Amino acid sequence: IGPGESLFTSEFYAGCKAALNENGIFVAQNGVCFLQQDEAVNSHRKLGHYFADVSFYQAAIPTYYGGIMTFAWASDNPALRQLDTATLKARFEAAGLTCRYYTPAIHTGSFALPQYLLNALSAAC
Fold first, then answer.
1. CA–CA gap between residue 29 and residue 124 (Å, rounded)
2. Are 22 and 105 in contact (CB under 8 A)?
3. Could you report the per-residue pLDDT of 86-111, keeping only the tens digit for each?
4. Three-state DSSP class for 55?
5. Which residues neighbour 67 within 8 Å (Cβ) at sequence distance 6 or greater?
6. How many other C-beta atoms can be found within 10 angstroms of the C-beta atom of residue 54?
7. 2-124: CATH homologous superfamily?
8. Where does the PABS domain start and stop, copy by copy (predicted)?
């Protein structure tokens, strides 16, 4: 992992958990899972000790080698990750934002993970 190694430790995750408000959400980058799958697996194991709901989402980051970056998502409230597209759309429209990439459907779809990652995460639990 290199210089950022301390950002993937149990101690760091415990500190983040302690700093969050109720219904807080922890998010952290976890590399490109096609090339760095072990990072997500290790994060999943560690975060599971501190949060009731641990998952990942992906986004296209064209400037990062491999392009599809994986991000850890952790919270004690599973409902926060399960907002439907219609609710996201209503919030997005109410905010009056104009985006070139983001849409509520992209948001929902980003939590759909490739099977190889789902298999690795399942085997790690």
1. 19
2. no
3. 999 999 999 999 999 999 999 999 99
4. strand
5. 32, 60, 61
6. 22
7. Vaccinia Virus protein VP39 (3.40.50.150)
8. 1-76
3-state SS, residue 103: coil
Task: Determine the Cα–Cα distance for residues 14 and 17; give it in Å rounded to an integer.
Answer: 5
Copy the structure tokens of residue 97.
Answer: 């934002």
pLDDT range class, residue 4, cuts 50, 70, 90: confident
Beta bridge partners of 70: 58
| Residue the block writes with tokens 């948001």 | 107
Tokens of 3: 């210089």
Domains in the chain: boundaries:
2-124
Half-sphere exposure of 30 (CA within 13 A, CB side): 26
Helix segments in 7-103, DSSP class H: 10-19, 33-47, 85-95
pLDDT of residue 119 exceeding 80, the answer is yes
